[in-house]
Amino acid sequence: MASPAPLRDCQAWKDAGLPLSTASNEACKLFDATLTQYVKWTNDKSLGGIEGCLSKLKAADPNFAMGHAISNGLVLIGTGSSVRLDRELDLAVKTMVDVAQAQPLTQREQLHVSAVETFAKGNFSRACELWEQILWDHPTDMLALKFSHDAYFYLGYQEQMRDSVARIYPFWTPSIPLSSYVKGIYSFGLMETNFYDKAEKLAKEALSINPTDAWSAHTIAHIHEMKAEIKDGLEFMQHSETHWKDCDMLACHNYWHWALYLIEKGDYEAALTIYDNHVLPSLKASGAMLDVVDSCSMLYRLQMEGVSVGERWQDILPVTQQHSRDHILLFNDAHFLMASLGARDPQTTQEILTTLQDASEAPGENCQHLLAREVGLPLCQALVEAESGSPDRVVELLLPIRYRILQLGGSNAQRDVFNQLLIHGALNCTSGIHKNVARSLLMERDALKPNSPLTQRLIRKAAAVHLLQ
């Protein structure tokens, strides 16, 4: 395993072609420490954790523009707060802009500040354009690479997520700090665009350099899921667990992938054990959006399989309720709705729907609010109709938008919960036309994922109601 590189001071950043406008070596090193933890998906105690580093960074140089940019960017990219509802964050973004305007920054730094400000307004695609402008001239700017990668993910821009890394990958020589992690970032974009062999090769290269690279392990988990390689996936998670379980920002998500294999197998009790021992505790400890959507998605998938999840929705609801009015990502909104429906809380359900409708009527430049009327609201309404026992309505709402759900972001594996919702709706329909839809969807699914036990269970269910004759 490669030994950790020393944290970079002012001169080191300058030597790397990425000068930072501060005279504080301490601020430069803390910026590097924060960036390193973001890339590694972990709060490293030896570095002081991300919050600890950011607090010290601000003290080291309150006017360090890139310190403000990484601090605000990380809050925003976490999608748990918005300037629309969080006055403290709104003030922090405005302060960042004021600090930047009061001093002579490099063009690269000016673009970073503009990108974060633009992302804060909900204009994710424009923010990505600004980060790409940085990468054209500075291909080893890891912050621009990571922020754009995450924003592309939220937009469902799979090819851009892949190609953005492909363009800069040759510049990342082994001597550059964090270079092995670029392999994992690239491998994820390749995997999402179905280049499974190349994605797996790169992820394994990254893991051979650093076995604790939780993101590369996560990519391999995705590959086994997409290819329905359940046995191989379970073995990989078991053998790699010791390396990624301490990456606190991603460990819960990797356990979620482990549980997906068990749900595929039909081993529901084992999946619930992972939920109870790893997923829920992580959610309660972090409140992070990734942990929230994983928890909701997992319980919802189990319910569609006919599994009783008991009172587990009640544990999630207090967390999701706090975000009912956020409307930062439509993908998140759909999962918050799963929780309020599962916990049988009609008031919160209505609050999510009503405030999302309001946001869609005055979207401004917010990409999610612009998409809400045509995609987000029909998806949310389909979840409500499924809960109320109206499967024909579920199909009527979902079928016209099934190929547009990609625009809500998330991974192929994550969005499969909505594919399953449509199939279950079609299987339970009373309309003969919609039953034929179920047959067609299952034939399609079986062609793309022929070894999936879950697909085979759905096919057997269809056969039982005479859909496949």
From TrEMBL:
Keywords on record: Acetylation, Phosphoprotein, Repeat, TPR repeat
Entry superkingdom: Eukaryota
Matching CDD domains: StaR_like (cd05804)
Entry similarity comment: Belongs to the TTC38 family.
Alphabetized PANTHER family for the sequence: TETRATRICOPEPTIDE REPEAT PROTEIN 38
Name this polypeptide is given: Tetratricopeptide repeat protein 38
Organism whose genome encodes this protein: Ailuropoda melanoleuca (Giant panda)
Upper taxonomic lineage: Eukaryota, Metazoa, Chordata, Craniata, Vertebrata
